[in-house]
Amino acid sequence: MKLWFRFEKIDKMIYISYIDLLQVLARGIKRAGVSISLSEGFNPQPKISFAHPLPLGVSSSTDFGELELNDSELESNLNLDELRQRINYNLPYGFNILDFKKPALFKPPKLMSLVEATSYEIECSNLVSKEELRRLLDDFRNKDKVTMQKKKKKSGKIVEKDIKPMIYDLEVNETSLIGTFQSGSNGNLRPDVFIRLFFQDENSIEKVHCSRTGLYFFDKNKELVTLWNWDELN
User: Fold this and answer.
1) How many helices (H) and strands (E) does the chain have?
2) In angstroms, rounded to a whole number, what is the distance separating the alpha carbons of residues 194 and 183?
3) Quick one: DSSP state of residue 181?
4) In angstroms, how far apart are the furthest CA atoms of the chain?
5) Which residues pair with 97 in a beta bridge?
6) Which CATH architecture has domain 2-112?
7) Which stretches make up the DUF2344 domain (predicted)?
8) Residue 208 in contact with residue 194, Cβ under 8 Å?
9) What are the strands, taking DSSP E only, across the chain?
């Protein structure tokens, strides 16, 4: 049985890598007495994945993942809130399951394949004043293009790509930047790349606090909708 889950990653857990975080969750679920389905092959792994990996040092107040249970007894008497509490009791501080849901579709697609945008709050008070931040945003908006360098997988060639079309929304709230960026298989703007280009400072990522606030897909009207509601609209 497949389940989707919503979680937060804060405090010291922001320095745990994607792979290590999967292992932390798998151990917590095992200690909670819940059986997870395993992949096939010579090195079977728990069927757990996250919708969109986070760069190291970036926290998240709303993130998503999926797992597959292999427990017929639990499935027949499934209480999702009780399951959440049991697993959270066995997870370290800073990694917390917020919700579970059973997708409406019998065979839902992988969450990772559905992500089309991510939103972030970038707190900048240790780097600039709110007046300076607004000036920087105006300057950024007035630029014709802002390019990043990207290495092609097949050829290894370094190419330049304009990131401005990958920014769906960008505003200032006091000393924070609030941005929504393109993500997923069609293009991905990492928050750390954006921060360095916005401030024109390679060390700026170390002076701000960046938190992911949402993951989204485009509905039939080309409006961004939280990934959590994908199964209800498809």
Assistant:
1) 6, 11
2) 13
3) E
4) 60
5) 7
6) 2-Layer Sandwich (3.30)
7) 2-191
8) no
9) 2-9, 48-50, 59-68, 95-101, 117-123, 147-151, 158-162, 167-173, 176-182, 209-218, 224-226
CATH topology of domain 115-232: Alpha-Beta Plaits (3.30.70)
Domains 2-112 and 115-232 share a fold: yes
Q: Which two tokens stand for residue 166?
A: 């990958």
* Dist CA 75 CA 154 (whole Å): 44
Rounded-to-integer distance, Cα 215 and Cα 115, Å: 7
The domain ranges of the chain are 2-112, 115-232
Strand duo 59-68 + 209-218: pairing:
parallel
Q: Which of 182, 51, 189, 184 is nearest to 112 (CA)?
A: 51
pTM for this predicted structure: 0.90
Burial classification of residue 157, based on how many CB atoms lie within 10 Å of its CB (0-12 exposed, 13-18 middle, 19 or more buried): exposed
pLDDT of the residue at 76? 62
